[in-house]
Amino acid sequence: MLRAEINDLLTQTGPETPMGQLFRRYWQPVLLAEELPANDCPPVRVKILSERLLAFRDSAGRYGLIDEFCAHRGVSLWFGRNEEGGLRCPYHGWKYDVTGQAIEVPSEPETSNFCANVKLKSYPLVKRGGVFWAYLGDPAKQPPLPEWEFVTVPEGQTYTSKRLQECNWLQALEGGIDSSHVTFLHSGNLDSDPLFKGARGNAYNKGDLKPFFEVADYEGGLLIGARRNAEEGHYYWRVTPWVLPNFTMVPPRGDHPMHGHFWVPIDDEHCWVYSFDYHPTRNLTEDEIGAMQAGLGVHSANDANYRPLANKDNDYLIDREAQRRGETYSGVKGIAMQDASLQESMGPIVDRTKERLVATDAGIIKARQKLRKAALALAETGAEPVGNRPQDQKVRSVAIVLPADQAFIDGIGEAMVARPGVPQTSV
Amino acid sequence: MPKVVYVSALGDATMVVGQVGESVMAAAVRNGVPGIIGECGGNNSCATCHVWVRDEFTELVGKPGDLEDDLLDLGVSERRDSSRLSCQIVLTDALDGLTVDVPAEQP
Q1: Is there a contact between B74 and A359 if contact means CB atoms under 8 Å apart?
Q2: B67 to A372: CB separation less than 8 angstroms, yes or no
């Protein structure tokens, strides 16, 4: 039920597109800290928002994100030599610093000023909370550094992984907004996954298969409340924040770490899913980190290039027997790949003119409208987007039992605000 | 018993006798008016009951709600100032004679 031109508008994020321009007003995660582990380590290809870039860490530990290709004859600098304060093209020895400035063109005479006039495009790249962040927009409009709680808590309290997803970013994001699918697709995981099991809230989830959804506006995006029956006269609310353009958090369970995602466009047919877990007030335990590294919870088991081991080439290792037994609802193992398998099955860019939405899709409808309005307002009037300001980013998901006559937005109060040292609100 | 007139894209008018309290979509579906689908059953989520309200009734009928407004922006073939989802218009005696145009295509 989405008009074709709006589907194009929302799914295309290249440099000249309205959504691409909107994305270029936000810091986006582009690498994990482990990908640039040491000074002069190998450079890493970064494709984001349909731009091909290269990240490297020079001899002095400075980070650079520059055009992937040498200004001379277009060789990929991924083959380059990262040495003595710059990245040198292996073809003719041209050398660039972290700002993309050419600092040596060895073939030119000593007296030549040639290299002073050669500069590759470059973007700021900063490490914060185990993640490298890049800003691809107008330098004059650069927002403050990311203030998400998962990047600002002490190092021992947070863990981030990433995986390749082989479809457009929007259908992946929409999975993060649509908590209605949890009742079905992920029903097998609540009791078995060490990062979810044991929470009191899980029983409410399983006891009410027809949750009611209510969507509330908030300054940075939306709060999507899923209401299920709890004890007499009470409801169990799971509240998912979505912050423009591509941040979502999953409502917490008990004292388990809280988790969420960034859905980052690589190009129009692929995205990186950054999945984080953190606890606001304590270190993650060894067992928890072990489970995350093993691909449990919202994470996945991947190959060295962060492509999941269960992928479309092997039908996501679907186990029909487990599906039949009800151990896993779809037969695919793990929350992350249960989602990814179905979202990739829609095709690289799903044709939303043919979809048939129902009442539980209200969050998706409102998110599309907010994205559309933000992209058009930026394109037409230069209106400042929301979601890139620190106050928009100090947000948490919530799981709470409220009296039946209380609106969730009143009942959660400050619980949705990330406050240092204050535990999450969770049942 | 308010009467409602539905005018198709070809100009054919169908008059239906509605009941106070039912929606303009429900009255149409109950009487088999072509072009009003109401796939989601009146839940304000599918946008397949789009109509254009005739000028003389727009004030009386009022503006779309928040989610309805989003659905009209995103989904329907031609959004106009007079666009409404007919499942969100509840019939009253004051709306007797309400006339709406039905688009050639629903989403």
Answers
A1: no
A2: no
Q: What is the per-residue pLDDT across A178-236, written as a single tens digit (0 to 9) for each?
A: 888 888 899 888 888 999 999 999 999 888 888 899 999 999 999 999 999 999 999 99
Note the pLDDT tens digit of each residue in A79-114.
999 999 999 999 999 999 999 999 999 999 888 889
Residue among B39, B45, B47 minimizing CB distance to A362: B45
Contact A243, A381 (CB under 8 A): no
Question: What ipTM is given for this predicted complex?
Answer: 0.85
**Global pTM value:** 0.94
